[in-house]
Design brief:
about 350 residues, 2 domains, Rossmann fold, 7-stranded mixed sheet, 17 helices, single chain, alpha/beta, Arc Repressor Mutant, subunit A
Length: about 350
């Protein structure tokens, strides 16, 4: 008679778990490839046989089938009939214009630059240093400025991610205090975040600050949204100074920098603002312990590329306090990001 101890353990076997993790680069490459091919868009209206998918994407039918079969084994797509595939909820996020689409982010995370830099992880582990300089001879953001194609992929990913999280931010946070005031979006990219706020709060004004080559894309967005007269553009280096404003917002910026450089940005905001000014950070605090969290993997991206770090709530609180700010609230949203509201002391 079998006993409970002789029964196989529930869930994946340890060998399957470790090999699945070790083969993660294959999943990255596969998702990136089908995103580039636009396979998810071809499945928007229902299941499609791989022969039709291959014809539409000018690919080898057998090779495409094997890639989709592998992704389906991880819940990305599903094989509804022999060699016929359909979308799953995760695959739906690869559709270009789907609500919350992550296609542009997938194109960035699977970009060849990651496959060239991440093999150098051991260097970061041994030294705590970034690796972009070793691979490309330039810092992360210098590389993105010099390599126009990769820089465009990165900027599109940031804009797409903003589009996916902004509705949740606007639902969770009341920006009505900006009536008659100016909000400064520091390193706001192409302006997806600040234009969304200004559209909902028509009595507010804005300043979008970023590097000159990034602001070129922002000009088009401001014009298209009819906000050129309510949102000024300011090019500059936030390590030197930031524009004066009544309030500030930064999405996924502070995590790009270590405490020393993040402190420089915060002190520059302090010099440009009055006591009591609100600074809103859109970030994801790291949870303690073994709790699964995507941000714990993104922390390796921060370590290896820009040299920043993801932080716990306590670490954010200490960082703000050391540089003239007090963390007043942490507001969860329905997106991966939380709203960290700080006040200038």
């Amino acid at each position: 008679m079998s006993t409970a101890s002789s029964l196989p353990a529930a869930g994946p076997k340890p060998v399957d778990k470790i090999l699945e993790a070790a083969l993660g680069f294959m999943a990255t490459a596969a998702i990136h490839a089908v995103a580039r091919l636009g396979v998810a868009d071809l499945l928007k209206d229902g299941p499609v046989h791989v022969s039709c998918l291959a014809k539409s994407t000018a690919t080898n039918q057998d090779a495409l089938y094997r890639v989709l079969r592998a992704l389906a084994s991880n819940g990305i797509f599903t094989e509804t009939a022999p060699r016929t595939f359909a979308l799953t909820p995760p695959a739906q996020l690869l559709v270009k214009d789907a609500p919350g689409s992550q296609r542009d982010m997938v194109l960035w995370m699977g970009d060849p630059c990651h496959f060239r830099t991440f093999p150098e992880l051991l260097h970061s582990i041994k030294t705590g240093e970034t690796v972009v300089e070793r691979v490309y001879g330039a810092s992360c953001f210098e590389f993105l400025e010099k390599d126009k194609a990769t820089g465009e992929i990165f900027n599109n990913a940031m804009t797409g991610f903003s589009a996916s999280v902004i509705p949740a931010v606007l639902e969770s946070y009341d920006f009505s205090f900006l009536q008659g005031k100016t909000l400064v979006d520091i390193a706001g990219g192409h302006g997806m975040l600040i234009t969304s706020i200004l559209k909902k709060y028509p009595a507010a004004r804005g300043i979008l600050m970023d590097l000159p080559h990034v602001l070129e894309g922002a000009k088009q967005r401001l014009a298209a949204e009819g906000l050129s007269d309510r949102c000024a553009l300011a090019s500059g280096d936030f390590f030197k100074e930031v524009p004066s404003g009544d309030a500030y917002i930064m999405k996924h910026i502070i995590h790009d920098w270590d405490d020393e450089r993040a402190g420089i940005i915060l002190r520059n905001i302090g010099r440009a603002s009055a006591a009591g000014a609100q600074v809103i950070f859109l970030e994801t605090p790291v949870l303690s312990g073994d709790a699964p969290q995507i941000v714990k993997w993104l922390d390796l991206e921060m370590l290896m590329l820009p040299g920043g770090r993801e932080r716990t709530e306590a670490e954010y609180r200490a960082l703000f306090s050391a540089n003239g700010f007090q963390l007043s609230r942490v507001i969860p949203t329905k997106s991966p990001l939380n709203i960290l509201e700080a006040v200038r002391l």
